[in-house]
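Exercise: predict the structure of this protein bound to XIL.
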Amino acid sequence: SDGTLKKAFQDKFYIGTAMSLPQIDGTDKKAVAIIRNQFSSIVAENCMKSMFLQPQEGKFFFDDADKFVDFGIKNKMFIIGHTLVWHSQLPKWFFTDKNGKDVSPEVLKQRMKNHITTVVSRYKGKVKGWDVVNEAIMEDGTYRKSKFYEILGEDFIPLAFQYAQEADPNAELYYNDYNEWYPEKVKAVIKMVEKLKSKGIRIDGVGMQSHVGMDNPSMDEYEKAIVDYSNAGVKVNITELEISALPSPWGSSANVSDTVAYQKEMNPYTKGLPNEVETKWEKRYLDFFGLFLKHKDKIRRVTLWGVTDKQSWKNDFPVKGRTDYPLLFDRKDQEKPVVQKIIKLA
Ligand code: XIL
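Solution:
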């Protein structure tokens, strides 16, 4: 194929991908070649989350993260760290004492500080941007009742940003979340941004994960969110983009437990996408990239959540064992036709 994504977007924004372990350790050779050719930015899909970096208190495991960062440096990529403070993929020791009870605010603060300082310092000057806090706000604008929130209240957010900033004053710092177009959520995220700024704490960007489906969100509500964040004085990062081609199980009245009928309904395209579905899916990607280009002055980076359909987490989320087609490269590591169409848009 002719052009590459990296070349097409070089004067617009970084174009990135998440890297899974088989790509970081080099066994998924074809995907690694695609990453080198096509992308200017990388983020680790899992290996820099707290349960992997610090599985036990004080026992850090950096082998995979080091390989990931070395790959990015070697290939002159904009490297993103994901993620410092998140309620999920968080080891239980982080917020409990020897008896399994919640620790005091002072102890949790100390553990957060130690984790953030150790990790950010190790990659100082190499990792250029951090998802400092992930998924702290709900769709209705309230704070998620995570252990961080329960023990420290909303202060855990400014504290996390402060620790990250102290460890690497030159790294960009982001707040990252999903469904970041729900109006109440947009308002709450902007309020949080303003609060940080009023305390003199730097936040450079908001990350819109963008695990989207065929119909939701509408382009209008998604565009409004980009504009609103930008007006609040932060850059917008599209951090985990993929477009699931499968029906959304959210709100379905069907029973998610493994009934045969439900599995069939939720996994209709095991032998490939029908033409009309593929056409709709392509248009959806082109609509999104059209929007990113229209707002390129507001957007720092667009990152896909993976390279090929065969390794996408969407095959197992939110329902296990589906055959999804959400990414830009297929199960045989081939570039899909939509890639050259996206490149033409640029
Ligand atoms: C997902 C990974 O893709 C999976 O491999 C893992 O099992 C669970 O986490 N929001 C995030 C990402 O911020 O870290 C998540 O990644 C997807 C949702």
